[in-house]
Amino acid sequence: MLLAGQIQPQSSDDYIERVSIPGHLTDRTVELFSGQVVPVLVLPNIRGIYGWRVNALVAAAVDATSPDLSEPENVRMRRALKSFLHRIYYDLRNLGHLDRDRALNFAATNAFQAASTFADAINSGMELDSIEIEKSPFCRLNSNCWDVKLRFFDAENGQRAKKIYRFTIDVANIMPVTLGTVKSWSVPRST
């Protein structure tokens, strides 16, 4: 199913752009028929294997978080959410060795959490500035929690305060989970 989705046209809702395979990298490698050498993964639980249909994911996230958007706002929101996902996929990609990397990776795969953030920021005329991951000071017992902080700025008004949206991800288990709701606040533009 994953391979069949990857050969679909990129504009198709069935197009699978990415796959997530939660597991552990080993020191072993294997050579493919193409000559490429790839690492061997140990998959303790296959329930997290998933094919990301980014087009359908973005549409569902926007529809779920902002069903009453006008057509231009809907297009802008979809573009911004897709841009966020691509930034994480290409600019911030990692193998998930570190806990903070796993939190970032899960933020990319959990587009519904990011969509609620983007809906508010875009409706305020703001654009994504940076993505920060830091150890959360609050966490439930026996957990490993990280805060994902999305910082937005106003591209048309440099005097306007930046806005930060924070949500928490627990990466203690093989399948991370988000905790609580999205929190937001404004900070001076110089920070």
Topology diagram in text:
Elements: H1 2-6, E1 18-20, E2 24-31, E3 37-42, E4 50-52, H2 54-65, H3 71-91, H4 99-109, H5 111-123, E5 127-135, E6 145-153, E7 162-170, E8 177-187
Helix pairs in contact: 2-3, 2-5, 3-4, 3-5
Q: What share of residues is helical?
A: 25-40%
Task: Order the strands across the largest sheet as they lie in space.
Answer: 5-6-7-8
**Low-confidence parts, pLDDT < 50 over ≥5 residues?**
none
Mean pLDDT: 85
Provide the domain count. Answer: 1
Query: What's the number of helices?
Result: 5
CA-CA gap between termini: 46 Å
Helix-strand makeup class:
alpha+beta
Q: Give a short account of the largest sheet.
A: 4 strands, antiparallel
Shape: globular
The value of Rg in angstroms is 18 Å
Properties at a glance:
191 residues, globular, 5 helices, alpha+beta, 4-stranded antiparallel beta sheet, two-stranded antiparallel ribbon, single chain
